[in-house]
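Can anyone check this?
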Amino acid sequence: FELNGIDLHWDNTCNFKCVYCNASQSSLIAQEQGIAINRTDHNNIDKIIALIKKNQHVMKEIYFSGGEPLLVKHNVKLLREITNTQLPIRINSNISQTVDTNPVFTELKRFNNVLWTVSAECQGEQFNYVRNGGNWDQFLHNLNTVKALGHQVRLNLVWFVANVTSMFNTIEYFVKEHGIRDITINQLAGHDYLRARHAPADLKQQAQEQLDRLLASGLIEEKSNVWYNIARCSRELEIAESDPVGYAEYFDRLDQLRGTDWRQVFPELVV
């Protein structure tokens, strides 16, 4: 047996409470909801690290997930055991840490074939609200630091009611300003009342117009995976459902817990 690849999801340690996320993916949300956090047994951690070290010259990929993998100390221990700097590394990160001093990031700088999947479905104040715990300016600083290493970057977005129109502008921004063309759009799973279909009708119409404009702009290669990802958003907009009460009640509950104000950040959603 030769280990071909591995997805390392040690635990849900995270410093974000993204509005569409859940306790299984974020330790802070679990804490907020009074849910116990399950962590990987240390004996299993040592066995997994030994297995990866043994197979590092035949493996095709290590994928670091979370939670937030830059916060998981086991990743430092693992990376220090790997001498094959050509081993493909894939990491799904919110890149919110101070990368100049983060020990996981320091180890990753040794590797030549690294793909960062970074998440940002909004910009500015909306980014800070949706990705609670994050800071837009810090995100951009760290993104530029990653790019300066020559590492690859993939943009990961969740499309839902809060960014039903702004997501397409966000995609355009990252293509134009950061040259990122590897883009994944995720339709929201769970929290059904937050799906884009529940946006007010006028916003859904605006979203369709922006979608059409982006596809016609030439920024996205026609018939590419990204192009089809964007085009498929039309299916969600065509669904006649609209339930502003559902998302309003959900955001109200979050605001009470977190001291935020969704009506100020997303006034267009107020009906």
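Reply from J.R.: I decoded it. The radius of gyration is 20 Å.
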